[in-house]
Task: structure prediction
Amino acid sequence: MKRTRNTISYFASIFAAALLFAGIAFSQQTSPTHGPAVVPSYMDKSVRPGDEFYLYANGAWEKNTEMRPDRAVESPASDIYDQHEQKLKDLIDESAKSQDRNSQRIAALYHSYMDEAAIEAAGTKPVESQLKAIAAISDKHALARALGETLRADVDALNMTNFHTENLFGMWVAPGFDDSDHYHAYLMQGGIVLPDREYYLSDSESMREIRTRYEQHVETILKLAGMDDPDGRAKRVVALEHAIALTHWTLAEDNDVHKANNIWKPADFASKAPGLDWAEYFRAAGLDKQNSFYVWQPSAFTGESALVASTPLDDWKDWLTFHTVEEYASILPKAFADEEFEFWGKTLNGVSVQQPRWRRGVAVVDGHLPSELGRLYVQRHFPPEVKAQVQAMVSNLIAVYRQRLHSITWMAPATKSQAIAKLDSLYVGIGYPDRWEEENFEVKADDIAGNLRRSREAKYQRERGLIGTEVDRKRWCMSPQTINAVNLPLQNSLNFPAAILQVPSFDANAPAAANYGAIGAVIGHEISHTFDSEGSAFDSKGRLRNWWTKDDFAHFNGVTDRLARQYDAYKPFPDLALNGKQTLAENIADDAGLAAAYDAYKASLKGQTAPEQDGFNGDQQFYIAYAQSWADKLRPSTLRNEVMTDTHSPGHWRVFEVRNQNEWYKAFDIKPDEKLYLAPEERVQIW
Result:
């Protein structure tokens, strides 16, 4: 399940992936959900393409598809995603028969999660020592120590946008804004469990209902853990989280990297964010030797630290108690895991049936031994010829971008040369990393809680150890078996994992039009992030530096503002519209990526005419493939969650990016009286 609690920034949010700990299937929203070949049976040809292109391409599929009870999202590729999980399960099962050390660790971790009898017998013992330590906290000095000891480096299994639930703050280790040659520590707001601050602050009926159910969830978890007065404790926990949420930045604010570029020395914390014993906090976190930090949301640090001082100690102890139990609830006895699903699955995402335990076990292994499982996945499922074909597509797309940059008329030569230098130095990783980064922690077949605790601690120590060292620009942030892709602006690099480079996203035997409309648009999207509203702030070395002329940047901002207003007008619900600023970077990447993919597709034909398929010419196939790649069906609560917390527009509205593509109008003879029609001067074309 995708449990986005508090998105820290654009740069971390692009690491989003599906997580199944609470037992619901939730497909990735940053990658296509259908294969590249056009499927006429999905289409509703009674809809005019210019009125509703998503439904024209996907209307019959959407009408005829029923949501399975264990799914938050359905797509035409759901069965293929299931097969992907089965492939991982097969690799895990085979590992048990191998004498290889890492294979044995994979098998042991999986067994420790699947041994339900041992988990039931252990009861709450896995968290009892932590709960006793919390109960023994006697003053705010000891509280600061406890908060520092729980600091983690943004490593909650696969969902890299989450901090562990007990963290008041989080740490992200990445190249420095001003020193991109070395890794630095970024400190981020934390402390809330619900997906975003608006879940605590919005006065809408749906959010009020979720808050009521959340308080009940907190009470149930505390009661199962044997706490007295669970009702009173739950009220205090939720009230404290509400106060924390008031200090948080919005996602739109988070996306402004210039606001995040704040370097604090250790002494600055006491003066700028009084209330927390920062010296003790940093000692407990093992960061007392660091001479500086990037503080992403300064006002949140000021506000949260003030809450440490002003909120009664017992309230903080209740908060720590709940967050600690919540952190491990999925590997505690069945009553805990069932309550997790009741809230995270049923209430938050509308799913009525929990995923089978083996799927959740696969997610645990995938999250905590990603490289170890990834090696096996690449050996079995990623042939060299696929990598070579994708590399050729990437080369075509980069060549198109270079040509488009050269031909831009609104950009001054000085700015243009910097943009081209950035493109020329871009690292594109295909399939798997050059250097595997193994997880160095002890795995015991009979200790699931210990395994997860040791995994998280090992990852924290690894990330902490990177601070101050030289940046590896070819370092990956995703495992090969992740169905997703990413642009890393601070490294000026891209990752395209092996799993997204196969069916359903790419088919080596499909027509070029369909492949470029599906995976080609994804590749173009990720390249485009290099020049989106955030990526454009970084130079060819990943430094946060203004390389634009004043007039060029004003032009860029004017055009992107128009794109944001386009998306502001889309309303998935009567009471909830898309936030064009929140999703701007992704929408820019869709806009430019689709245009570049089209040009690369045409170039791949080398002057030839694409063959027709099912009565559609090549250009029509390209745009239909793009639209069908975003076909999905979400439960209303899931869609609402996505609109409020995701930096991507939902798939249905991503398809509307065709409105800005001149060639789409020609391909389908779109007329001014059709609903999606935009006059040429209203179309947003950035790169």
Q: What stands out?
A: The chain is about 50% helix and 5% strand. Residues 1-31, 155-165 have pLDDT under 50 and may be disordered. Residues 384-407 form the longest helix (24 residues).
